[in-house]
Amino acid sequence: MKIKSIFILIGIISIFFLLACQSELNSPNQNNLNDQSSFETVNSDLALMKDGGMPLDEAAGVFSIGWNEMFRPFEDSSAVKGMAFAVAFGERETDLSHFRRFGLDMGNVLINYSGNQIEMQKRFHDRRGVAYSLFKRPFGHSENLLEFIPNTEYHFEVSGSEVFAPITISLTSPISLMDITSHNHGQVIDPAQDLAIAWTGGNIEGKVALRLMPHLRPHRGPGGGHHGMGEHHPPFDRVIFVVLDTNPGSYTFTSEQVQRIMNDLDADGLMVEVSQMEFGEVEHPNGILHTAMRNGNSVMLRVD
To answer: Is residue 126 within 8 Å of 39, Cβ to Cβ?
Structure first.
């Protein structure tokens, strides 16, 4: 089994630099929002997909759906959160590292599944173009997210524009979602012992990504309150990111890895996250459109 280990901090957990930008594109309606955080989120998700093997540099566009994804707020919640994004790339370069080419206007993009229909929010940016998203706060402003229905087709219905022909793209949800079974939220572990993670769910053949990182204690402000979200993330070299080519259902982090990322940090535990990525391709007059179906699960562990 080929294992790719990378010590990185995915940009999705970085501080979002919120800038006031005025779109140079067509006048937006109520669903056409200029929202920098959504573009930063898409950029970080694209980074994850590229690390997972998606040939992003040659892609004409990317359409992604995911439930309880690993690179999302760290919260203990039983609610299944289905999020999505869609982008078609033009030729003009942008200021982002992975969302490198200007996003094209694709008209309206709907997601249809099992009798349900949700319109994706259309985002504009003067230096990045157009992106479509369903992201929950703080990564977006979507109130209607996707319900998870096992082994069901979810259809992106794209109305099209002068620069992008209409198309319908179908993705099939997994039979079951990822679920970490080896540990519960808040369980105490011994950092002197190897950390064996086990999980169920997902599809056997899909790639699996794991992340292990310290959970830092919240910083207190002058009035005793917590500082902003950007101050609770560990240094770049204290995050372990691993991609497995298949879904074995288990992976072990060594005690040396656990101790190294915890050493000299004001951390009260560890975050362990497991996610699966399934990629596909669809032909379009603009080129090859890449698809991703993802789901994940995470737990926070206390350190003895």
So the answer is: no
Q: What is the rounded CA–CA span in Å between residue 245 and residue 64?
A: 19
Q: pTM for this structure?
A: 0.70
Query: In this structure, are strands 240-244 and 188-189 parallel, antiparallel, or unpaired?
Result: unpaired
CATH number at residue 197: 2.60.40
Helix and strand numbers (H, E) in the chain are 2, 19
CA–CA distance, 89 with 125 (Å, rounded to integer): 14
Residue with the two structure tokens 């940016």: 125
Dump pLDDT digits (tens) for 2-33: 434 333 333 333 323 332 333 333 333 334 44
Question: Torsion angle, CA of 201/202/203/208, rounded to 10 degrees?
Answer: -120
Identity at 299, one-letter amino acid code: V
Residue count of the chain, please give it: 304
Structure tokens at 176: 């079951």
On the 0-12 / 13-18 / 19+ scale of CB atoms within 10 A, 260 is middle
What angle is formed at CA 230 by the lines to CA 225 and CA 31, rounded to 5 degrees? Answer: 105
Range of weakest confidence among 11-15, 57-61, 95-99, 223-227: 11-15
Instruction: Say yes or no: 148 and 285 in one domain.
Output: yes
Residue 197: domain span: 179-275
